[in-house]
Amino acid sequence: MSAVEERLAGLGLTLPDVVPPLAAYQPAVRSGAYVYTSGQLPMVDGKLPVTGKVGAEVTAEEAKELARVCALNALAAVKSVAGDLDRVARVVKVVGFVASAADFTGQPGVVNGASELLGEVLGEKGVHARSAVGVAVLPLDAPVEVEIQVELVP
Protein backbone atom coordinates (compact mmCIF):
# COMPACT_ATOMS: atom_id res chain seq x y z
CA MET A 1 0.00 0.00 0.00
CA SER A 2 1.35 3.43 -0.95
CA ALA A 3 1.88 6.18 1.61
CA VAL A 4 -0.96 8.11 -0.04
CA GLU A 5 -3.31 5.15 0.35
CA GLU A 6 -2.22 4.82 3.98
CA ARG A 7 -3.20 8.48 4.54
CA LEU A 8 -6.55 7.74 2.90
CA ALA A 9 -7.03 4.79 5.24
CA GLY A 10 -6.20 7.07 8.17
CA LEU A 11 -9.09 9.26 7.03
CA GLY A 12 -11.38 6.23 6.91
CA LEU A 13 -11.33 6.18 3.09
CA THR A 14 -10.31 3.61 0.52
CA LEU A 15 -9.40 4.21 -3.08
CA PRO A 16 -12.34 3.01 -5.20
CA ASP A 17 -12.16 1.16 -8.49
CA VAL A 18 -11.89 3.46 -11.47
CA VAL A 19 -15.32 4.60 -12.62
CA PRO A 20 -15.91 3.15 -16.11
CA PRO A 21 -16.35 5.76 -18.86
CA LEU A 22 -19.91 6.75 -19.78
CA ALA A 23 -18.94 7.48 -23.41
CA ALA A 24 -15.93 7.46 -25.77
CA TYR A 25 -13.06 8.61 -23.51
CA GLN A 26 -10.53 7.31 -21.01
CA PRO A 27 -10.79 8.04 -17.26
CA ALA A 28 -7.21 9.38 -17.34
CA VAL A 29 -4.35 9.79 -19.78
CA ARG A 30 -0.67 10.40 -19.26
CA SER A 31 1.35 12.81 -21.39
CA GLY A 32 4.99 13.04 -20.35
CA ALA A 33 5.15 13.86 -16.66
CA TYR A 34 1.47 14.83 -16.45
CA VAL A 35 -1.75 12.91 -15.87
CA TYR A 36 -5.04 14.47 -16.92
CA THR A 37 -8.27 12.98 -15.64
CA SER A 38 -11.58 13.16 -17.38
CA GLY A 39 -14.37 14.75 -15.39
CA GLN A 40 -15.18 12.48 -12.47
CA LEU A 41 -18.74 12.23 -11.19
CA PRO A 42 -19.46 11.36 -7.54
CA MET A 43 -20.18 7.72 -8.39
CA VAL A 44 -20.28 5.28 -5.49
CA ASP A 45 -20.58 1.59 -6.31
CA GLY A 46 -21.61 2.40 -9.87
CA LYS A 47 -24.32 4.94 -9.15
CA LEU A 48 -24.90 8.52 -8.12
CA PRO A 49 -26.00 8.81 -4.49
CA VAL A 50 -27.78 12.13 -5.20
CA THR A 51 -28.96 13.95 -8.32
CA GLY A 52 -30.21 17.45 -9.04
CA LYS A 53 -29.16 21.08 -8.92
CA VAL A 54 -27.17 22.57 -6.07
CA GLY A 55 -29.24 25.26 -4.39
CA ALA A 56 -32.47 23.44 -5.30
CA GLU A 57 -32.66 19.65 -4.77
CA VAL A 58 -29.12 19.39 -3.34
CA THR A 59 -27.68 21.51 -0.52
CA ALA A 60 -24.26 23.12 -0.77
CA GLU A 61 -23.01 20.89 2.08
CA GLU A 62 -24.22 17.73 0.32
CA ALA A 63 -22.54 18.90 -2.89
CA LYS A 64 -19.29 19.62 -1.03
CA GLU A 65 -19.25 16.02 0.21
CA LEU A 66 -19.96 14.82 -3.33
CA ALA A 67 -16.99 16.86 -4.57
CA ARG A 68 -14.83 14.89 -2.12
CA VAL A 69 -16.09 11.68 -3.75
CA CYS A 70 -15.24 13.12 -7.18
CA ALA A 71 -11.68 13.85 -5.99
CA LEU A 72 -11.34 10.33 -4.62
CA ASN A 73 -12.51 8.95 -7.98
CA ALA A 74 -10.01 11.23 -9.73
CA LEU A 75 -7.18 9.85 -7.58
CA ALA A 76 -8.23 6.33 -8.58
CA ALA A 77 -8.07 7.40 -12.24
CA VAL A 78 -4.59 8.89 -11.70
CA LYS A 79 -3.39 5.67 -10.09
CA SER A 80 -4.72 3.65 -13.04
CA VAL A 81 -2.16 5.29 -15.36
CA ALA A 82 0.60 6.29 -12.91
CA GLY A 83 0.72 2.92 -11.16
CA ASP A 84 1.32 4.42 -7.71
CA LEU A 85 -0.04 7.58 -6.09
CA ASP A 86 3.31 8.10 -4.37
CA ARG A 87 4.54 9.17 -7.83
CA VAL A 88 2.43 12.35 -7.64
CA ALA A 89 4.79 15.33 -7.40
CA ARG A 90 1.91 17.78 -7.12
CA VAL A 91 -1.65 18.49 -8.13
CA VAL A 92 -1.35 21.24 -10.73
CA LYS A 93 -4.97 22.13 -11.46
CA VAL A 94 -8.48 21.25 -10.33
CA VAL A 95 -11.59 22.16 -12.30
CA GLY A 96 -14.95 21.72 -10.63
CA PHE A 97 -18.31 21.97 -12.34
CA VAL A 98 -21.40 22.54 -10.20
CA ALA A 99 -24.90 22.00 -11.60
CA SER A 100 -26.43 25.11 -10.11
CA ALA A 101 -29.89 26.49 -9.50
CA ALA A 102 -30.26 29.88 -11.22
CA ASP A 103 -29.60 31.85 -8.03
CA PHE A 104 -26.84 29.65 -6.55
CA THR A 105 -23.44 31.38 -6.35
CA GLY A 106 -21.56 29.16 -3.89
CA GLN A 107 -19.62 27.09 -6.44
CA PRO A 108 -16.21 27.77 -4.79
CA GLY A 109 -17.45 26.40 -1.47
CA VAL A 110 -18.72 23.24 -3.15
CA VAL A 111 -15.46 22.60 -5.00
CA ASN A 112 -13.61 23.12 -1.71
CA GLY A 113 -14.69 19.56 -0.95
CA ALA A 114 -12.33 18.28 -3.66
CA SER A 115 -9.55 20.74 -2.83
CA GLU A 116 -9.65 19.96 0.88
CA LEU A 117 -9.55 16.20 0.27
CA LEU A 118 -6.50 16.55 -1.98
CA GLY A 119 -4.80 18.65 0.70
CA GLU A 120 -5.62 16.16 3.45
CA VAL A 121 -4.28 13.26 1.40
CA LEU A 122 -1.32 14.84 -0.38
CA GLY A 123 -0.32 17.69 1.95
CA GLU A 124 1.69 20.39 0.15
CA LYS A 125 1.62 18.29 -3.03
CA GLY A 126 -2.15 18.78 -3.06
CA VAL A 127 -1.99 22.61 -3.27
CA HIS A 128 -3.23 23.60 -6.73
CA ALA A 129 -4.67 26.20 -9.07
CA ARG A 130 -8.43 25.86 -9.48
CA SER A 131 -11.58 26.85 -11.30
CA ALA A 132 -15.12 26.42 -9.91
CA VAL A 133 -17.77 26.79 -12.61
CA GLY A 134 -21.54 26.83 -12.35
CA VAL A 135 -23.35 24.99 -15.15
CA ALA A 136 -26.96 24.28 -16.09
CA VAL A 137 -26.70 20.48 -16.09
CA LEU A 138 -24.13 17.69 -15.80
CA PRO A 139 -24.15 14.09 -17.09
CA LEU A 140 -26.74 11.84 -15.41
CA ASP A 141 -28.05 14.94 -13.56
CA ALA A 142 -25.01 14.81 -11.25
CA PRO A 143 -24.70 17.81 -8.91
CA VAL A 144 -20.92 18.08 -9.31
CA GLU A 145 -18.06 16.92 -11.53
CA VAL A 146 -14.31 17.32 -10.91
CA GLU A 147 -11.24 16.85 -13.09
CA ILE A 148 -7.63 17.12 -11.97
CA GLN A 149 -4.22 17.45 -13.55
CA VAL A 150 -1.19 16.11 -11.72
CA GLU A 151 2.54 16.13 -12.30
CA LEU A 152 4.44 12.91 -11.65
CA VAL A 153 7.96 12.61 -10.28
CA PRO A 154 10.39 11.63 -13.04
TrEMBL record:
Transmembrane segments: none annotated. Residues 5-148 form the Endoribonuclease L-PSP/chorismate mutase-like domain. SUPFAM superfamilies: YjgF-like (SSF55298). InterPro entries: Endoribo_LPSP/chorism_mut-like, RutC-like_sf. It comes from Streptomyces doudnae. It holds the Pfam family YjgF_endoribonc. CDD domains: YjgF_YER057c_UK114_like_1 (cd02199). This is RidA family protein. Signal peptide: none annotated.
